[in-house]
Fold:
Amino acid sequence: MSAAPDLRDPPPAHVRRLDPILVDRIAAGEVVERPASAVKELVENAIDAGARSIEVAIEGGGRRLIRVVDDGIGMGADDLALAVERHATSKLPDGDLTRIGSLGFRGEALPSIGAVSRLTITSRTADGEGVSLTLDSGVKGPVRPAPASRGTRIEVTELFAATPARLKFLKTDRAETAAVSEILRRLAVAQPQIRFTLRTESGSPTVFPAESEPGPAALLRRLGAVLGPDFPGNAVPVDMAREGFALAGHVGLPTFHRGAASHIHFVVNGRPVRDRLLLGAVRGAYADTMSSDRHPVLALHLTCDPALVDVNVHPAKTELRFREPGLVRALIVSAIHEALRRAGARSSSTGTQAALDALRAGAGLGSAPPMAAGVGRFAVHSGASTASALNPRPASRLFSGPSVAAPAGYRPAPRPAFTEDHPGFAETPQALFSADLAPPGADLRPEPEMLSEAEAHPETHPLGAARAQIHETYIVAQTRDGIVLVDQHAAHERLVYERLKRERAGGGVLAQGLLIPDVVEMAPEEADRLVEAAPELERLGLTLEAFGPGAVLVRSVPSALAGGPVKGLVLDVLDALAASGVEEGGPAGAGDPDPVSRRLDAILSRMSCHGSIRAGRRLKPEEMNALLREMEATPLSGSCNHGRPTFVSLGLADIERLFGRR
Structure:
């Protein structure tokens, strides 16, 4: 077999300076990766020039044409001639790279773009004459007089014509147009006081009107235009400051999420960035409220002294280095936690719309979404299966929060179907239901004189009063202006988790010793993993020790989970250990100030899932109302630990429209 040919250049004989045009093209490889990169640089220049209206037009995804027109301060003939020279800029007035207050500062954008395209700049100041200059594949033309309005107009044609190999690496026109649109959206979030317009070949332009008055309301309007009309109704405000850093903006509810991180917007001193530290902080803030494969929707503005952040660490200036990254991460996590807790028991409005769509589909008014097994069309969120194993526990263990008392004399209802021998909540099935129809899991309609003031007026409670349990999985509650559907397992999972976290923060999870220690058998390596983590698990109320090869002896469990099967709890904890790496000091997120605490919370989350009311469990009226009241008093109760909604609200007006009353 013949040897592969040597494609390397022969060793150079002497060191030489590269041709200036070649230098510009090499630099363009970093600055101008694709058409969207050129648009970003040109629009940032317009923002630095004080523009209040910026219009971008592209053709062929930006290959054939990029046009950026602004109403900024413009340039005269001398400035225009110098602007296309490398490292010539109007920024950095004192030459201090530690206090950069503008978006651009390197003076590379215009010469780099002009080195790989035909670049034409037309500009005029408020009191000057219009001038124009062309840069063709790095060759600079003369400055000529030209008619122009105040501001600057830049046209880029034949992008990468001077470097045709780069054209092969570009994506389709549609993909490149989408990238340009994304760049403009991020800049629109960063600069709500500026009007942005994007014109493409696909039809009507995209316009983000300028917000004339600064403040949270104006920012929220701009976010609604960028992130979608559903965002304002599913977002909570953020406003927190700490040690020279101020954070403001809006974050979406945990149940308002997306499948990609593209809806996370961070702005630092007016600059849109995609920094790993900031993204890691967001992931940590939503860790126990959202599934790992989902991403929140948010926009946060971080403001600080420019000396506290270094923006000169990435060619595209999209990454940063903070002088105190731990402080920044802690601020973001604390601010998001505080905002979400302040929101209380809220669930996204998209769940309501999904429920309405499912009901309309069931009535033949639209296409039906896939039906969850065993729970009918009300299952807009995925709770546990109705066929899951059931292990009834005393009510005092189910509702053990500080504000909920266990109903006296409660006995768990058995699993068999509703019969005279196993009546559930109702003493006898309603006469309305025949033997061929399944009766409700509960019928809660006592005589009015038997009700307390709060029970007689369910509007006094945000989540209303329980009226029925359907499919032994969902609670139906009546509110002042509609109904609420509650997933009993998802809701109780959140309540148990928050209680366990409170106990751990207060000095340790309360434990209940087992009268007879339980032996749990497993693979030897799994037993070793549990024994190694025993000191950490003891802080969580789970006390165990080695019991020969391939077994552990469990002496106590968290009191909130007492009464359940010990083996199932231990195996759940084992799975959480494997996922979080607590026994090995697993990797923490970037700048994570307390990785052990984060991993212990992950274990508590798994414990709470194991110890919660299961779907398929019949609840008594007292239990259902106790669950609703505790949800109202518990932060983050609008979603379970995995990000699924715990309840969906249907307004009376929505219900009336379903039946043609409106």
Notes: The chain is about 30% helix and 20% strand.
